[in-house]
DNA sequence: CATCATACCTTGCCGTGAAAGGTATGGCAA
DNA sequence: TTGCCATACCTTTCACGGCAAGGTATGATG
């Protein structure tokens, strides 16, 4: 085990961004609102979270950007690269395993639990 | 800023500790291992995480401690107070809502999705 | 013309988790 | 005996991620 899963709770904003962009190319401001709406206001990530994530993701080659002007408004659209797809699968897998693990703790004595009479 | 809703991802170590202690009183070292075992090694929180959590929880009146000596070994057992039960329910609810929200983003277009016909 | 909504971005703070180190004792093996 | 590992407690230190807040610019609206 070369690398322990340190920071086990992080990367959720990244995960959400990647997942949304997978459906169609989107721009930052749009993502902020999409996350709010799709989560029924349960998750409200500000622009101060989204933009840095977007830039980091692009730097890593997980996203590619192209600038468009719509109605005189300049937008930076991001779309998923092949690297981004892998990154998404990776993060989604981690998240899934994490929540299952937590669930198995919350869910009481081990499923195949040893009942020491 | 005690009950701040920000930092939406935090409090999981706390949640796990409270949940485990609910079943029976436990001591720090034991909790570290219990979390590892119950999560099938998916979550490995060190003592540097657990002890501070324990102390904070006791300070807040969510846990009560009593020292025992077993086999010449001194252990500090923690058990859940009424306040702790409430805290647990609270955290568990938050966690549940959070994971559902994330799931509803990951799961694609809204469940009760508006099909703009 | 002023104000709001859109759209982008950065700086700086702070909480949290994690590593690492420190103390002490009991058990076991060399 | 000595030394080392496991048990058991605890603290200090650090890094990083999320977030508020602030800053720029432009189009629409009244």
TrEMBL record, chains A, B:
Gene3D superfamilies hit by this protein: Winged helix-like DNA-binding domain superfamily/Winged helix DNA-binding domain (1.10.10.10)
Parts forming coiled coils: none
All residue ranges annotated as the Transcription regulator PadR N-terminal domain in the record: 17-89
Listed InterPro entries: Metal_resp_DNA-bind_regulator, Tscrpt_reg_PadR_N, WH-like_DNA-bd_sf, WH_DNA-bd_sf
Cross-referenced Pfam families: PadR
Domain of life from the UniProt record: Bacteria
Identification of the protein by name: PadR family transcriptional regulator PadR
């Amino acid at each position: 085990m070369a690398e322990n899963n340190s920071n086990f709770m992080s990367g959720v904003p990244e995960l959400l961004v990647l997942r949304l962009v997978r459906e169609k190319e989107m721009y930052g401001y749009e993502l902020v609102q999409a996350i709010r709406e799709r989560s029924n206001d349960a998750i409200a990530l500000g622009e101060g979270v989204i933009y840095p994530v977007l830039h980091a993701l692009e730097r890593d080659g997980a996203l590619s950007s192209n600038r468009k002007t719509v109605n005189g408004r300049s937008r930076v659209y991001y779309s998923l690269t092949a690297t981004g797809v892998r990154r998404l699968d990776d993060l989604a897998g981690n998240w899934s395993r994490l929540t299952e693990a937590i669930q198995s703790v919350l869910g009481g004595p081990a499923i195949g639990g040893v009942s020491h009479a």
